[in-house]
Design goal:
Length: about 500
């Protein structure tokens, strides 16, 4: 739709202006830094940063209902820079010019309501937001679109050159980082560090296919992260993990899209997210806070963070009800099917602590809750979801298991409406489904398949047939007819089909 076809009162707002005054702010000491440099931690105290807009109050001058119209009309634009997460340009990266915005099709993933049988079984109305339908098949593309657009902006302004983008990953981050970096060649090259044998074959193939330098090292994600942090502190590299505050900005788009999908009505809504490095739950809270402060939404939704019992440092921290007695203690993780959440020392934990407190304070009640779930429940609920028409990954299964647990604990009511984050495409984790169906999980996963959920192929090769078709070897017509009839009869018998 062309600009002149929009209502005249909306036209001045449809195309966002390059504006804002963004700065890094340390969550610990409060010092602020210019964004014309790549920073990940505070040079003064070493704590993580968040990005703030000193001109944010200007956004509050636009009434909430007008913002609704602005975002809704922007959906009709064909400008590539505004088709993705930058539809919310004023909230994500108001200083980024359109020609620096990288758009590969990320964002605006579908929200799919669970079918009636699954909702009845869970006992609550809920939806999956299928973030596996992003370009690299995970939610990580949201943050990478933001981080790489910012890097391209710095390149255009000659603040950096010959960038090597690097990240540690359990799979999805590396896929997204390599994809977006590849789009910016020759200006940007990429390298990724993966824990050896802790990434699915599908995920490993992605950065390799995008041309990244891929390094596997012994240990788990936390070990990879320490190496990447050491590299970023010593060498001229661009860190693309969620320690990078620009990643958080991009992932805030998840909140904005949910608000828009539900007509900006967040009353009785529960947003369920898995917790890995804690960047996503940080972004979700920060995004809803921004929309609330500007009057775009009138209610802060409830946030439910879910962790596996095999990787639950955030859950453990909030088990202490007295905030003054809480102490964060990193843990050693155990194997988990929710691989991206298998992190014992999340780098965004200081952001979580800061934003959970702020979120509950602004809401004037507890709105952020945490639950832990068993590995068994993650797999059982993932398979149940996908047998009900979804494409949920293991992290989507983790969210659904968390929803069931939270409802049983009374943290949410049957009248709430939940939106669950299926962070990646189910095909990335098909190996775990195969292990479930074949009952071959190593003991440390603590998963035994429910025989009612097992589904394996049935080989049909009738014993009374001597001849079968094969590639490059056609059967004579009579033999082929006999083959078709016998196979049809066996299928009909197994499925108890009735003749017409």
């Amino acid at each position: 739709m062309k600009l002149e076809d929009f209502p005249k009162e909306i036209q001045p707002y449809i195309i966002p202006k390059q504006n804002g005054e963004l700065i890094y702010r340390c969550l610990n000491c409060g010092l602020e830094y210019d964004i014309d440099q790549l920073l990940y931690t505070c040079p003064h105290c070493g704590q993580v940063l968040l990005i703030y807009d000193r001109n944010f109050d200007q956004l509050k001058k636009i009434p909430g209902k007008l913002w609704h119209q602005i975002f809704d009309y922007r959906k009709m634009l064909t400008i590539p820079a505004l088709k993705g997460i930058y539809r919310f340009h004023e909230f994500i990266g108001p200083i980024i010019p359109f020609d620096a915005i990288i758009y590969l099709g990320e964002g605006h993933t579908p929200v799919i309501e669970a079918n009636s049988l699954l909702q009845e079984k869970v006992g609550i109305r809920f939806y999956f937001k299928n973030d596996g339908q992003n370009p690299s098949a995970s939610f990580k593309d949201r943050g990478m679109a933001s981080a790489l657009s910012y890097i391209y902006y710095l390149i255009q302004n000659r603040h950096v050159s010959d960038v090597l983008a690097i990240c540690a990953s359990t799979g999805d981050t590396s896929a997204a980082a390599a994809l977006y970096a590849a789009y910016l060649k020759p200006h940007v090259k990429s390298a990724v560090l993966l824990p050896h044998k802790k990434v699915t074959p599908q995920q490993l193939s992605q950065p390799l296919g995008s041309g990244a330098a891929v390094f596997e090292i012994p240990g788990v994600f936390d070990d990879c992260m320490k190496v990447v942090e050491a590299l970023s502190e010593t060498y001229n590299v661009a860190l693309l993990n969620s320690k990078n505050a620009w990643r958080i900005l991009g992932q805030e788009s998840y909140s904005y899209e949910i608000a828009q999908d539900f007509e900006y009505d967040m009353k009785d809504k529960v947003i369920v997210v898995p917790i890995g490095n804690a960047g996503n739950i940080t972004a979700v809270m920060n995004g809803f806070l921004k929309f609330y402060e500007t009057g775009i939404i009138n209610t802060l939704p409830q946030i439910l963070g879910v962790q596996s019992k095999h990787a639950n440092p955030v859950y453990r921290y909030y088990q202490e009800s007295d905030a003054k007695k809480r102490k964060f203690i990193p843990i050693t993780v155990k194997p988990s099917v929710a691989q991206a959440a298998m992190i014992g020392n999340p780098v965004s934990m200081p952001r979580v602590i800061h934003l959970v407190d702020l979120y509950n304070r602004v809401a004037d009640q507890q709105k952020v809750f945490f639950v832990e779930v068993a590995e068994q429940d993650i797999m059982d609920w993932q398979i149940l979801a996908n047998r009900s028409g979804h494409i949920a990954c293991t992290h989507g299964g983790e969210c659904l298991a968390g929803l069931v647990k939270a409802k049983a604990q009374g943290k949410i009511s049957k009248n709430d409406i939940a939106i669950l984050d299926s962070t990646a495409h189910a095909l990335k984790f098909s190996g775990f489904q195969e292990m479930y169906f074949e009952n071959c999980f190593p003991a440390e996963f603590e998963i035994l398949p429910d025989k009612n959920l097992i589904n394996t192929p049935i080989l049909l090769k009738p014993k009374d047939l001597e001849k079968f078709p094969a590639p490059g070897k056609e059967l004579p017509e009579d033999d082929f007819k006999r083959f078709v009839n016998r196979i049809s009869e066996e299928i009909a018998e197994i499925l108890d089909l009735q003749k017409v």
